[in-house]
Design brief:
The protein has about 210 residues and is of the alpha/beta class. The protein is built from 6 helices and 10 strands. It is about 25% helix and about 30% strand. Helix 5 packs across helix 6.
């Protein structure tokens, strides 16, 4: 049986108030599977855990529990220098995430891949200049068509951002206070009260546009 492209299995990340206190200040929990090539939209308020989720999937942040399997391989057991051959995080601020190396590289497994399978875009820029959005849509579509899993994390402040997600994504994750909720499409996500409160007027505009299009 072929392994899922990505399996986020009982993943937990806890941050504590201090080294002396064992009371968790923030906890992220995620559990979902991506069987094959797919484009997934990720939304949620600032501080909800979206970037932490991406860091855990790419292995640049260590989980408190659970594991992340990319093409059947536990990314946190793969050599640090080879983890981006499984999953890669494109951060909007162009920051490079340093690995907290707890084990010597020779103690870890090889990636056994030359190119990443999972591509995570953290707030990519969608310029409204002529042709740019179409170029980006084509780029994401090509990555998926080549057999990859694509995550698009967007903080929408214009209606066209939702339109881009609706056209690009076959599935959605909404991250809220450390909880990762799954939705089959954008309309299902907007129907959720927490997501609707986050989107505000954009949710109303998108719902109205969808009703008109029916």
């Amino acid at each position: 049986m072929t392994a899922p492209a990505l399996n986020v299995e009982g993943l937990i990340k806890r941050y504590y108030r201090s080294r002396m206190s064992r009371a968790a200040a923030f906890t992220l929990a995620a559990d979902f599977t991506v069987q094959g090539p797919q484009t997934i939209g990720v939304l949620g308020p600032n501080g909800s855990g979206k970037t932490t989720l991406f860091e855990l999937i790419t292995g640049s942040n260590s989980p408190s529990g659970g594991r992340v399997l990319v093409d059947g391989r536990d990314i946190h057991r793969v050599r640090y220098s080879e983890r981006d051959r499984l999953a890669i995080h494109y951060h909007q601020s162009y920051q490079v995430r340093a690995f907290h190396k707890k084990r010597m590289p020779w103690m870890l497994e090889r990636a056994h891949r030359a190119r990443p399978l999972v591509h995570l875009f953290d707030e990519p820029q969608f310029s409204i200049q002529d042709g740019y959005i179409g170029f980006m849509l084509q780029f994401f579509r090509r990555l998926r068509d080549e057999g990859n899993v694509v995550f698009l994390c967007v903080h929408p402040n214009e209606r066209y951002h939702l339109e881009v997600l609706a056209e690009s994504c076959e599935r959605f994750l909404f991250v809220h206070q450390g909880h990762v909720l799954e939705f089959r499409n954008l309309d299902a996500m907007i129907a959720d009260s927490k997501a609707r409160a986050y989107l505000g007027a954009l949710a109303t505009a998108e719902a109205s546009a969808a009703a008109v299009g029916c």
